[in-house]
Design a protein that fits this description.
The chain has 328 residues and is an alpha/beta fold. It has one domain: Glycosidases (TIM Barrel, Alpha-Beta Barrel), CATH 3.20.20.80. It is 40% helix and 18% strand. The protein is built from 12 helices and 10 strands. It has helices spanning 4-7, 13-29, 49-54, 93-102, 123-138, 167-179, 182-186, 207-210, 235-245, 269-280, 294-300, 302-327; strands at 36-40, 60-70, 73-77, 106-113, 117-118, 154-159, 192-195, 217-221, 250-256, 286-292. It has an 8-stranded parallel beta barrel with strand order 1-2-4-6-7-8-9-10, surrounded by 4 helices. α9 (235-245) links the parallel β8 and β9. α10 packs across α12. The longest helix has 26 residues, at 302-327. The protein is globular, with a radius of gyration of 22 Å.
Length: 328
């Protein structure tokens, strides 16, 4: 049987034409229905940061990674060939970051990563790293900043090795620095803390930090983790555990953008849109989707397909609403 909105199409050609114009205009004006965070910086041959933001597909871009810090180590930014921070080559990214922010995309620096030499030895270590991050990427304006003095929107904790010690202190120090800054007093810029824990709960590396309640967004990695990925049939229970444990944060579903991007955890776009996201959206603090990584997303078109499916679904629903309203 044809849906009721389709039956109305025959009522009036003039009404249909007017309503079609309204539906098209609304589709063009509305933002993407799915908030997508993506990691950029670790893929050889991936598009520039500015090009990434200009796709209009993403709400957040995490620059990956500050891969060395703590324990007496000088912080090191590793962008996998995009630029050489040791020679000042990454300072040119300041213009890209400003362009992203002007388009409404939040740009964060991700610390850690799967391969790196990092860890915090004590509270002083946490304080020193917080000061470095604040002065170089958030609130300061040093000429030595690896990103040319760009003011980022926050720090992402992507801790995947070492111990869980003192990341809670790092989060507290960063939040204190922001709250006591002129930026906070002026109220014209906010800084966010985000994290990318593995889906087994509690996370091995970030549990104490997440318990502080200071994180704005948490993109849980539901890949490379057989106990809680989609194929295991336990994703929903793991999702419910995470969203219940983080009531003050918005929680994103972290996925690979390609089956080649992770050993496990890939979900095809159609299944994600029709089966997984409806379940995820039932949580009051559902935030969106996180994708690893921009390089593979660019190759597969995963985020573009997802936004297109979601837009078509929303567009169909809204078109029906317009038609019913016009006939009343």
């Amino acid at each position: 049987m044809a849906p009721s909105c389709c039956k109305l199409l025959c009522a009036s050609s003039r009404l249909l034409f007017a309503v079609s114009l309204l539906a098209v205009a609304t589709h063009a004006a509305r933002p993407n229905p799915v908030r997508i965070a993506v990691y950029w910086g670790q893929g050889g041959g991936e598009s520039t940061l500015n090009e990434t933001c200009s796709t209009g597909l993403y709400s957040h871009v995490n620059i990956a990674f500050l891969s060395e810090f703590g324990g007496g180590r000088a912080p090191v930014l590793n962008l996998a060939g995009h630029c050489d921070p040791t020679s000042g080559g990454c300072a040119a990214l300041a213009a890209d970051i400003a362009s992203c922010q002007s388009q409404g995309v939040k740009v964060l620096l991700s610390i850690g990563g799967g391969i790196g030499s990092y860890g915090l030895s004590n509270e002083t270590d946490a304080q020193n790293l917080a000061a470095y991050l604040w002065n170089n990427f958030l609130g300061g304006s040093p000429s030595s900043s690896p990103l040319g003095g760009a003011k980022l929107d926050g720090i992402d904790f992507s801790i995947a090795t070492g111990r869980d010690d003192y990341y809670d202190e790092l989060a507290k120090n960063l939040k204190t620095m922001y709250n006591s800054s002129d930026l906070a007093r002026a109220g014209n810029k906010t800084h966010m803390l985000t994290a990318a824990p593995q889906c087994p709960y509690p996370d091995k590396f970030l549990a104490p930090a997440l318990k502080t309640g200071l994180f704005d967004h948490v993109w849980v990695q539901f890949y490379n983790n057989p106990p809680c990925d989609y194929a295991s049939g336990t994703l929903q229970s793991a999702w419910n555990t995470w969203t219940a444990a983080l009531p003050s944060a918005s929680v994103f579903l972290g996925l690979p953008a390609s089956p080649d991007d992770a050993a496990r955890g890939y979900i095809d776009v159609e299944t994600l849109a029709s089966q997984v996201l409806p379940m995820a959206r039932s949580a009051a603090n559902y935030g969106g989707v996180m994708l690893w990584s921009r390089r593979h997303d660019e190759r597969t078109g995963y985020s573009a397909k997802l936004q297109d499916i979601a837009n078509n679904t929303v567009g169909t629903q809204r078109s029906c609403t317009f038609l019913v309203f016009g006939m009343a």
